[in-house]
């Protein structure tokens, strides 16, 4: 606990930056990746499987999440 507080005081992070780093990947995963996962796992969504748009949405979701993580660790 003391080390965590010391590190936070040393780095002096922006709270808005922290919120952006956490909510960005979470929002992208919920809006783009979670529906594609549900399409492939739930039998009721079987009519929408195998469409080119699913590949596009999954690809855009992965690019969005990876870009946010790349910016977070840069």
UniProtKB/TrEMBL annotation:
The chain crosses the membrane at residues 15-34, 55-73. Keywords: Cell inner membrane, Cell membrane, Membrane, Transmembrane, Transmembrane helix, Transport. It comes from the Bacteria. It is found in: Cell inner membrane. It is a multi-pass membrane protein. GO terms for biological process: amino acid transmembrane transport. InterPro entries: Amino_acid_transport_2. One of its GO terms (cellular component) is plasma membrane. This is Serine transporter. The lineage of its organism: Bacteria, Pseudomonadati, Pseudomonadota, Gammaproteobacteria, Enterobacterales.
């Amino acid at each position: 606990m003391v080390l965590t507080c010391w590190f936070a005081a040393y780095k002096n992070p922006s709270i808005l930056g922290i919120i952006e780093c956490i909510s960005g990947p979470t929002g992208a995963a919920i809006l783009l990746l979670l529906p594609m996962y549900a399409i492939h796992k739930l039998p009721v969504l079987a009519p929408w499987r195998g469409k080119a748009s699913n590949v596009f949405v999954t690809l855009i979701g992965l690019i969005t999440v990876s870009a946010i993580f790349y910016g977070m660790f840069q």
